[in-house]
Design brief:
It is built from eight helices and five strands, in the order E-H-E-H-E-H-E-H-E-H-H-H-H. It is mainly α. The protein has a three-stranded parallel β-sheet, covered by helices on one side. A two-stranded parallel ribbon has the order 1-5. Helix 2 links the parallel strand 2 and strand 3.
Length: 166
């Protein structure tokens, strides 16, 4: 198992920029860091897009020999789960469903409370968008999602509810 428990945003940037390529550079084993990124043939994933904005100053990740593109976020997590030297950015909710280590970021654990209070700095909001005048079935869904019952359901999935996000 990888001994690394904490990483800085600077080191995350170094990994995705291709400057940090071995776990030894972070105090770990002398093994290459295998970086997994979800990317379809048509577009960036939400995670990669957020990484570019929050960490890489709008630039794309380095594409070198230890960078592996996979078609979905779910596959990223599955692959990291099976790869002892793997590394990836993932969503909080989906990563918790897998047998992966969620690293502390600048010493801060990725807990619901730390995400709500903006202590864990890599976080991305999820938006529901619809036309101004949605079809009745879409309006019904939106009404449910915004209702107390819908928010409880959303919270039960591990996603932050509107109340939590305020």
């Amino acid at each position: 198992s990888n001994p690394i428990k904490n990483i800085s945003i600077k080191d995350v940037k170094g990994i995705y920029a291709g400057r940090i390529t071995n776990w030894k550079q972070l105090g770990g084993k002398n093994e290459p860091i295998k970086v997994f990124i979800a990317r379809t043939t048509k577009s960036l994933s939400g995670i990669e897009s957020s990484l570019r904005d929050m960490v890489l100053e709008g630039k794309p990740p380095f594409e070198g020999p230890n960078i592996y593109l996979v078609p979905t976020g779910g596959m990223v997590e599955q692959t990291v789960e099976k790869t002892p030297d793997g590394f990836a950015a993932s969503g909080f909710t989906s990563a918790r469903k897998r047998n992966v280590k969620i690293l502390r970021l600048n010493g801060i654990s990725a807990t619901k409370e730390n995400i709500i209070k903006n202590r864990y700095k890599l976080r991305m909001p999820l938006f529901l968008v619809a036309p101004k005048n949605p079809e009745p079935k879409v309006k019904k869904f939106l009404d449910f999602a915004l209702s107390r019952e819908g928010q409880r359901f959303i919270g039960s999935l591990g996603v932050l509810s509107l109340k939590d996000a305020k």
